[in-house]
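Late entry, evening session. Most of the bench is empty. Finally got around to the prediction I had been postponing all week. Sequence below, unchanged from the version circulated by S.P.
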Amino acid sequence: MGMHVAAEEIRAEAAVLIDHHARGTWQPNDADRRAALALFRCLETGLPLSGEQIRTALTGPEPAAPATAGLRALLRATAGLLDDSDVADGPAGRDAVDHVCLLLDALALARPNGR
């Protein structure tokens, strides 16, 4: 079993990013937005998110700015959580993934005008 990440930590981190994004104190960069949009499209299919989907969405170029490591680190942790079905299927795991999905929704829907 790989690195164990507490579902509560993922949920808390997602909640912080949702809050900061809503208040405008955190702006996702292009790499963040690309990953969020790719995962948002996965969510739109109605299928549950998988660790594999997250890793695929993160295969793009790494952002130069370290300040945005927050989202990518959160998504990597979420992928790890989803790989551990016992944790992912538990109440805390589901709550954590729900928060990550809310964050992805917020980022995908807040994209700048124009494509």
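Two things to note before I forget:
The first helix runs from residue 7 to 23.
The chain has a mean pLDDT of 85.
Will write this up properly tomorrow.
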